[in-house]
């Protein structure tokens, strides 16, 4: 039988074939051949790193109706299907080879059966269409962080989104040797009408981790189709486990301190919990908003942004609360909006602080106020999970080291969720293990519109990564605990909670802009420049330090009574939370290290001792 490159001559035109032949890795040739023979496209477009090729991708996204130009130059809008608006967690599964086992928490199925099903759905799926072949680098190319990756798709919207989100990698692929590893994605929209996937009941997103391939079919929503977002994160977590580094659902940002100092932080927040708004705080700089690879070097932790763009939830972006993003989204430049309302070429979205128009075009088609869907539900003018996609280079606050192949040194790690009744607004862990366990492994949140299903449900979200962890959870925790062994300067660990409410659950105890103060306090703590109160659950800020910071950062008077209410230790809620987390790991994570239970037991005992001495609700100022 002839080699794959020779067989590709029957599939590719001469130009496309020459581009593939320039890559000296037979496994690349095999992957492209297999995808083409499986999906049966009419033609194949092999995209290089050239501006000309990328311009063609953008042009065809519009010409084929997957994107619609808007009034602002460079802006387009894409509409996903009505029932294709979020990550499909239920139909995202790991394909497990015979004899292998994964954590029982992970959605999985036998590899053979899964491949037969998804490849059956993909067979001939690109008939009459062009297959687009894309090459990218996850993290800066040719750095120690970099992972080469290749995706085939028949969606020009998906391909265009990837141009904004990822670094071009064709030139890197030309330097691969025959044995190089790389991540692979095969995607097809499936049967479409008016450019929208029709068979969402047959939507499948399967991850064949043994061959590092993601398959996606009958879907367009970027979280299901842009394979290098959370789908490849699952592959990266397994790779990091084998090689001794961490692949995380984290932003990276620079926080400016006294005397021109800059301290870099990573932060893990579940969707719609303040992650992007934290990374985009005015006056600070952003390296990345979503995914980070962490490695050890020179006695420190270093991090690099996996991506180079933002695929962000647009709900709540407005001129008052997120002025940087607001300006970018209203200025000429490349932006893809999805599932917003469009009126006269201008996009509108939820909580943008503008008057809602009476009618327009949205993800349901032509929309009027009060319109209802087939189930009788009122259709909002924009979807709660509507998105924007922009390159980070569009942002005026992009950090000068965002593309540094060395990464940036990390001084602190932040964990934050939506917790209405327990967590204080900001605190520091006693040490790395205490932070990893009580802030990372114990992270809880409330569900949002980013995944299909009910919203507002309290959910277990360890490390903001539960949907993406592709190794046993207990092993994942152990990897975090062991990660800083031997380091001279391990990062400090912090917990934040922007959603604490009063005891009657009637109001939030903080304004949204207060997060700027918490960041400044954490930056000072990394350098040991402010004191802290040793409470049972961590190190709390001292009132006088926060009062000074509120004044200098926000020009706001911070009242003592607000401080006491915000930082009161709510012992009953904490005891309930601690016991719930312990039982969760006992039931769901059989490989959990003993350290986790020891740390939780010690914290529970501190809480009980404090309750015996001071009562169930304790002012922070009683602690030393």
CATH class of the largest domain: Alpha Beta
Average pLDDT reading: 94
Structure classification: alpha+beta
Largest sheet: 9 strands, mixed
| CATH level-two architecture of the largest domain | Alpha-Beta Complex
What is the β-strand count?
35
The protein's oligomeric status is: single chain
How much strand?
Answer: 15-25%
Spans of at least 5 consecutive residues with low confidence: 448-454
In whole angstroms, the N-to-C terminal distance is: 77 Å
As a percent range, the share of helical residues equals 25-40%
C-alpha-based Rg, rounded: 25 Å
CATH T-level fold name of the largest domain: Phosphoenolpyruvate Carboxykinase, domain 3
SS summary, helix count: 18
Integer tally of domains: 3
The gross shape turns out to be globular
